[in-house]
Specification:
With about 350 residues, this protein is α/β, with parallel strands linked by helices. The chain contains 12 helices and 16 strands. The protein is globular.
Length: about 350
């Protein structure tokens, strides 16, 4: 592979990488995207999937100049929470919750961005993986690296990462988007189900390896609580940039970072779609104006430290203590959604700024 120095190289064709590539191309740069898989849409073993996530698609779309609407991004009207067996139902629109299809299908957000990128003149090269320091050294200064949940780029660039483990399954599920979350003893973080465009997706995850019994208990909860049965369960493992207080970073030497690699997710709940899109825009700005990009990055990541400390304090708590805390937290949001519904939203990088019109 020969890299042309006048090009802007983007490593990774996920949400952050694609949004960065589109904006760089619109700014007049020749752009090439290097993607590890044979097509856009992420790990074939993990997708198609659905992220149920807080978003402001209209404002994000205006900010990036990219239309974000159904079928790729669809409002989620109903949210079910099960806090240690107690059921709560919430209005998802009050939480700005949206179902985002991920993966290789034409209705996925990645494919939507891919089509826009091609129209903007972005070129793609598939089958290139950033694994080592030598791979990183091949990249010209000013290249954008947005490699998602893969371990190797963290190691190659010397960036600390948090391991995440779990079980996933997908399948068919007709009907309007719905989100279901379980906070229970079978997973230290949480488990969830989401659907969109006929795709169903479920994930149970933790920051340490989960035993087989956790999967069995989650499968049972899916069936008993919601009448949902999925097949083809498989293990999941990934890396997320929330290991340390100083994880958020826009630069690694001469390279520009975006998405999870840049620490652009909420370290408590791992919401990352909104932050990935907005960080792709900041990475594109950094190609031409590093100072302005750094100021934006610093602003949208300013609440990271509070969420990080909160998670560290929550982590060692036994389930006997977590149970009343999570129930109380959910009760507050259900009873007073207009006053307290945004408690978790403002920890998502850039959400509060975008909500306020920034």
């Amino acid at each position: 592979m020969v890299l042309i120095m006048s090009e802007v190289i983007v490593v990774g064709a996920g949400l952050a990488g694609l949004s960065a590539a589109i904006l760089c191309a619109r700014a007049g740069h020749a752009v090439r995207v290097l993607e590890r898989y044979k097509r856009v849409g992420g790990d074939p073993g993990h997708h198609p999937s659905v992220d149920s996530t807080p978003m402001l698609p209209d404002r994000m779309g205006k900010l990036l100049g990219i239309e974000l609407k159904p079928p790729q991004v669809t409002p989620t009207p109903t949210v079910h929470f099960f806090a240690y067996g107690k059921h709560y139902e919430m209005d998802g629109t009050r939480q700005h919750l949206h179902a985002v299809e991920r993966g290789p299908r034409p209705t996925s957000l990645e494919n939507h961005l891919y089509r826009i990128a091609e129209q903007a003149g972005v070129r793609f090269e598939f089958g290139w993986t950033l694994r080592t320091q030598n791979d990183a050294a091949q990249l010209p200064p000013g290249s954008i690296v947005a490699t998602g949940l893969h371990h190797e780029p963290y190691q190659a660039l010397g960036i600390p990462w948090q391991e995440v483990y779990g079980f996933v399954a997908n399948g068919r599920f007709e009907g309007p988007p719905m989100a279901v979350a379980w906070f229970d003893s079978f997973a230290g973080d949480y488990s969830y189900f989401a659907n969109a465009n006929g795709v169903a997706f479920a994930l149970a995850f933790d920051r340490k390896p989960l035993p087989r019994t956790s999967q069995e208990r989650f499968v049972e909860r899916l069936r008993q609580d919601m009448g949902i049965e999925l097949e083809g369960w498989r293990s999941f493992e990934g890396a997320v940039g929330v290991k340390r207080l100083d994880n958020p970073r826009l630069f690694s030497g001469p390279l520009i970072l975006a998405g999870s690699l840049a620490g652009m997710q909420d370290p408590f709940f791992f919401f990352g779609v909104h932050a990935s899109l907005i960080s792709g825009g900041i990475a594109a700005l950094a190609v031409d104006d590093k100072a302005a990009a750094w100021e934006r990055f610093r602003k949208i990541s300013s609440l990271y430290k509070y969420s990080f400390v909160g998670r560290r304090l929550f982590e060692p708590l036994p389930h006997s203590v977590r149970k009343p805390l999570l129930r109380a937290f959910t009760e507050v949001q259900v009873r007073w959604p207009d006053r307290f519904g945004g408690l978790t939203l403002h920890t998502i990088p850039g959400f509060k700024d975008l909500e306020g019109g920034g």
